[in-house]
Amino acid sequence: MLKTNISDGWLSDEPRSLMTLALDVVESLYGIKARDQAELSLFALEQELAGELKDMNASQQLLPVLYGSMGVVGDWERFFAVDNCLMDRVLSRRRGIPVTLGILLLHLCERFEVRAEGIGFPGHFLVRIWPGEEGIVIDPFTGRQLSRHEMEQLLRGARGNLARIKPNHLKAADKLDILTRLLNVTKASFIHHQQFSQALACSQLLLKLKPDCPFERRDRGFLYEQLDCDQLAADDFEFFIEHCPEDPVADVLKAQVAALDLGPKTLH
Prior knowledge:
11 helices; SirB1_N; 268 residues; alpha+beta; single chain; Protein SirB1 N-terminal domain-containing protein; 2 domains
């Protein structure tokens, strides 16, 4: 069951680190034991990295050590696996996808006093770090610095061959933007594996961040429908229709609401 109180403070003025927010998601979905295990894995990783970086310049050596001897790597073979989206599993496996490895990299940069920021790049989360006076863009999936040409290739993969990099593509993302991206990716992975209850929990967390977002309400409606919660699905679909009447999907949803079984259920 979703522990909604965990996310109640997300929009407050209380400062919360990005890693704390990512671990909130784990606890909301799987409870305090999963979070405790994640924190133990994180502490062990930090201690190992501290030992590896002893007497080294962290800003110069953090990436080679983290993606070298410590074995952090992007999971090419199981890219869409739920294991790559949940921070407790990413920390224990040291494998993930760009956004989860990016969150880990940002946390470790902060821990070892390396200036860094996340970039909400279309289709592929990136990290900018400052090993010296000049910032460089890193792919957290590989730990490599990206050239502008490589970033353009990523962009075209996400937006089509006519896409060109614009300044807003490379601007820093704030913590809640990154959390939103993490939740969307996690929700999509659960849907891909037909784990609709967990996907619904992610949708509920997203609505904590954007309570009046008609598109998130629409998506939650589809999940309610998959879980045979027809009245709740209809409520969300009607919210979307009311707020986005010109959207082409609105007409489809009107027909869908009409087809839902909204009558009283007979208990046997």
